[in-house]
Amino acid sequence: MTIALTHIVPASINECQLTHRERQPIDLDLAVKQHAAYCGTLRSRGLQVIELDVNRDYPDGLFIEDTAVVVDELAVMTRPGAESRRGEVPGIQAELARYREVASIEAPATLDGGDVLITGKRVFVGLSSRTNRFGAMALKDILEPLGYRVVIVRVRGVLHLKSAVTAIDDATLLANPHFFDTSPFANFRLVSVDTSEPFAANALPVSGAVLLADGYPNTAEKVAKLGYHVQLVDIRELQKAEGGLTCSSIIFRTNT
Ligand code: CIR
């Protein structure tokens, strides 16, 4: 079975961290509706969605992806780059400990899950304003003994590596090459987002479908034309908090 951990939308979401976006009012009711639709879409793809409510005091608590990197063998709890978000980690750790052994990233390392792109045994870690070299090296030290290959990628102009590039299957990336160093990805097929839609690269592949944020029609058409089953999810209110599709869940397999 595949589990998607998600987190309710905190009432304080309007106090979220912002790095590259201007602050715009977020309609809480609409954000809650869009988040519910996101969870519903994951359920409709066969995932068991577990919606946590442990970080409602943290404005960014719904962006649960940033708190952990989960592989089959273990869960690595991060140390988020934004200090205001570090308190989110223990609550998520308690839940993940039910499914995985847990390892942790320690100071001075910082690492956000949004900077970690995994395809098979390859792990790409973006160096961003949130993830530092210590963080990338700490993840490498934890994962390489398990057979993973961890590669550092430079990111510019966006919050996280996965704002710039995601894997829509094991061999194919949806990407905006303007925002990251593409050289570590030479072995992949790279599908570029439409130039008029620079922020369209944050796709979430889920059991046979590629979820894309609604609002990027040219990119969606391009991906669909390649034969992918594209499903659009409207997350406009969450995007005002600089959230994407990947950041609102932690998805992993379990035997139970
Ligand atoms: C933050 O700045 O931390 C949040 N407002 C948005 C986090 C988005 N996370 C992600 O894309 N992985």
- Which cofactors or ions or other ligands sit in this model? citrulline
Distance between the termini: 7 Å
Number of strands: 15
How many domain regions? Answer: 1
Low-confidence stretches: none
Task: Give the biggest sheet.
Answer: 3 strands, mixed
Specify the CATH homologous superfamily: L-arginine/glycine Amidinotransferase, Chain A
Give the strand content: 25-35%
Spatial extent as radius of gyration:
17 Å
Q: Determine the structural class based on helices, strands and strand pairing.
A: alpha/beta
| CATH A-level architecture | 5-stranded Propeller
Helix percentage? 10-25%
Oligomer: single chain
> Mind telling me the CATH class?
Alpha Beta
Total of DSSP H or I helical runs spanning 4+ residues: 6
